[in-house]
Amino acid sequence: MKTTYVITFILILFTNIVYPNWIPRKENNKSANICDKLDEYVNSPYSEEQFLKYSDIKACYELTSYNKTKAIQVIETVKEYFKGFYALLDQAKENPNPGFALRPIDLISELDLVLKNNYSYEYQFIYDVASLIEEMRDGHTKLRSDVYYKYTFDQGLSMYSVIKKDGTQQIKVFNDVKEPSNVDCQVIDIDDRPAIDVIIEFARDHTFFSRDLSARFNSALASLAFGNGDFSIAGQLFTYRDQLPKTPSISYTLNCNGKISKITREWQVPIENVQYESPYISGTSVGNATLIFDAFIARFYILQDFGVVLISTEDIINSSWDLEYHFLSNIVAGFKLFADKGIKKIILDLSNNGGGNIFIGNYINKLLFPNIQNFPLDYKVNDISIPFIKEISRIKKGIGNIFHYKSFLSIKTKASFDIVNDFIGNNIYTRGGVQVRYTSKAFHNDTTNYVGTFKLPKPPKFPWTEKDIVILTNGLCLSTCAIITQRLAEINVPTIAVGGFPNTRFSFAQYAVGDVSSSAEIQSLLELKNINSSLVSKLSLPSNLTLQFTLAEAYSIKNPNEVMDYAYRPADYQLYYDERSARDPSCLWIQAAEYFGK
Ligand SMILES: *[C@@H]1O[C@H](CO)[C@@H](O)[C@H](O)[C@H]1NC(C)=O
Ligand SMILES: *[C@@H]1O[C@H](CO)[C@@H](O)[C@H](O)[C@H]1NC(C)=O
Ligand SMILES: *[C@@H]1O[C@H](CO)[C@@H](O)[C@H](O)[C@H]1NC(C)=O
Ligand SMILES: *[C@@H]1O[C@H](CO)[C@@H](O)[C@H](O)[C@H]1NC(C)=O
Ligand SMILES: *[C@@H]1O[C@H](CO)[C@@H](O)[C@H](O)[C@H]1NC(C)=O
Ligand SMILES: *[C@@H]1O[C@H](CO)[C@@H](O)[C@H](O)[C@H]1NC(C)=O
Ligand SMILES: *[C@@H]1O[C@H](CO)[C@@H](O)[C@H](O)[C@H]1NC(C)=O
Ligand SMILES: *[C@@H]1O[C@H](CO)[C@@H](O)[C@H](O)[C@H]1NC(C)=O
């Protein structure tokens, strides 16, 4: 009955693809429809296809027409989930901090409005609902369809942004698999409009990995990410999309050393990917930085006289306890090696870290600052959520589950709640102009997650204080990554964000929340004994749809009434990418080292 607390928020790492010529396939099965054929291309070991065509996928999606009866059921169910569990539903109606690119949204009424539209196909409806939910710009909260998000559409090129010495900003080609000679050409126009405007508009309206526009702008473009034991291209959401793009191609006007040319790229879906290789990175070094310890999800480098720790994720493959123990022990070992070598200053580079297990974040914080407190949290309390809290709290072995009262410590007593009703509490807050009930504020009891598994490795006492560490991110430090960086920032560890717009400090992290859940997780709990059958039918989504949502909101320790998700926390300092540093993070580390103790 133990569920892991994994905040599954993985920033997909994108790689590039080989494009040989399209090899037409023999059409030999008249009864197979276009969707079956696409599956066969992808899955058959004998398939000669290297990529799928935009028009074939569009034809596949258009096999299913819009059915208003089904649409109404989807909307009604999604509304029930949000009303029952979505901790931020009412706060989203308030005017957000002006630092965020966000409008106030009454999600429940706007979901009803979607039904007023006329759609020809089911996918158009699903995309509209998904896009509306994404307007919350809450990376934890999204609707996904197994069917309509199955493929990723690629342009075969990626772009990035540099700030020139005179302060002007340019979009350039980061990597081009089809025509490598385009690399570092300036992108002047996209579909005949200024490239920078097109990217900003796309970041504002079609991405949701931050509430801050600068971080979203970074996510629309390519950046280098460490992950899975290697470096690759992350982000590039403008040229690498999971929704069927509206048009079959995009045109780019390029300036390559004064020569202007225009190229057009069709959307294609690659079947196999190959890794991007930066010329400045090898297995044992990044620029002049030397790798001294590889902890798989983290790497430890030494550059000049300081240390650099890259942490790529807090997610453990297959939620394996063995791996988790292994990774945590290795992270301790890496820091110990730094201490043994007399390293006095450390840069934590958590760029493109998409989060993972909350307990790993809490562990890393305590590793560096043993007396640090976790962010407290609470859940929404209502007719839909109470049965889950009560029912799971009756299960002895349920301790550790996100609905079990014994998984938490009261912030008042710092001890476990005596009875479930103490956890449920009676706390009413005014949010978005309405009174909303939440549980008593609580901390995760970190040890409940590990009961019956392993004893957490006990770290030595490390010499570093907040004056010896700086945090560097590209703004895409999400979920559990934000639990690390935003908590450390609250105890005065300096923060630096790289990228964004000239002279515009921006959020270094986003979505430090308490817990995340999904319709798939709730579905498995609907089988519990005393869950009312009317609740079961209210919460049943078609199995090809999954709704994920923020279940628990976290509160600042510094400003105890501030909900972290809506706290605008710009970095203390800003750095920019140039042609070299975008491909060689050691250049950024040298610049970041200026800010130790500032
Ligand atoms: C033709 O396609 C259909 C639908 O995918 C499949 O059920 C059938 O087995 C295929 N027939 C052959 C001969 O491959
Ligand atoms: C629409 O969906 C409903 C419910 O699943 C079904 O009964 C009805 O036949 C469908 N309508 C059409 C036109 O397919
Ligand atoms: C929706 O489409 C149907 C069929 O094309 C049409 O009869 C109806 O008037 C449309 N409704 C609206 C609100 O546009
Ligand atoms: C690496 O070190 C060499 C020798 O000290 C120096 O010339 C070079 O500029 C350094 N490279 C970077 C990217 O800092
Ligand atoms: C994770 O699970 C999958 C499927 O069960 C398996 O194929 C894979 O090898 C596992 N990975 C690791 C690292 O254990
Ligand atoms: C946290 O949970 C563990 C395991 O259930 C329990 O032994 C421990 O007393 C709890 N911690 C506190 C401070 O109550
Ligand atoms: C289930 O809930 C409904 C509506 O909330 C209520 O009318 C009904 O009595 C409940 N049934 C049981 C068995 O508790
Ligand atoms: C998804 O599942 C629902 C319910 O089973 C079904 O009505 C719908 O057509 C499915 N969509 C696709 C594209 O398979």
From TrEMBL:
This is Peptidase s41 family protein. It comes from Gigaspora margarita. The keyword Signal applies. It holds the Pfam family PDZ_CPAF_rel. Keywords: Signal. Residues 1-20 form the signal peptide. Residues 153-264 form the CPAF-like PDZ domain. It comes from the Eukaryota. InterPro entries: ClpP/crotonase-like_dom_sf (IPR029045), PDZ_CPAF-rel (IPR056186), S41A_metabolite_peptidase (IPR052766).
